[in-house]
C-alpha cells in the first residue's frame, strides 16, 4: 500500500514538468506583452510542481518513518539547499539562451556556491564559478567545436 502512494506525486511532478515545457512552446502574443499568454499556464505548472514535491516529501516521510537517511533530508539546511538549487536551475534554464552560456553559467555556479559555502568564502566561490565556466566554455567551444548560445 505504501509504495503505491508514491506513484501519484511522481506522476504529478512529471505532468507539471511536461506542462511547463509545453507552456514555453505557446505562441507569443501579437499585441501587448508577447509573453502574456505564458504567465498563467506557467504559474499553474510551477504551483503543481511545488504541491507535488511537497506531497511526495510527505509520502516519503510516512512510507519510510524509521529510515535515518530520509529523516536527514528534512533536517537543518538540507531542504533549503534542495529547493534553492531547484529554483536556481529553473532560472538558469530560463536565462540560458537570452544571456548565453558563459554568463549564465557563471551566475548559476556563483549563486549555488554562495548558497552552499556562504559569503565568507566569496573569493573561492567567484574564482571557481569563473574558472569552471571559462574552462567548460573553452572545452566545448574551442576544443570540441560545439556551438554554444
Automatic annotation (TrEMBL):
InterPro entries: DUF1468. The chain crosses the membrane at residues 7-26, 38-57, 78-95, 101-117, 124-145. The keyword Cytoplasm does not apply. The keyword Nucleotidyltransferase does not apply. Residues 8-149 form the DUF1468 domain. Keywords: Membrane, Transmembrane, Transmembrane helix. This is Tripartite tricarboxylate transporter TctB family protein.
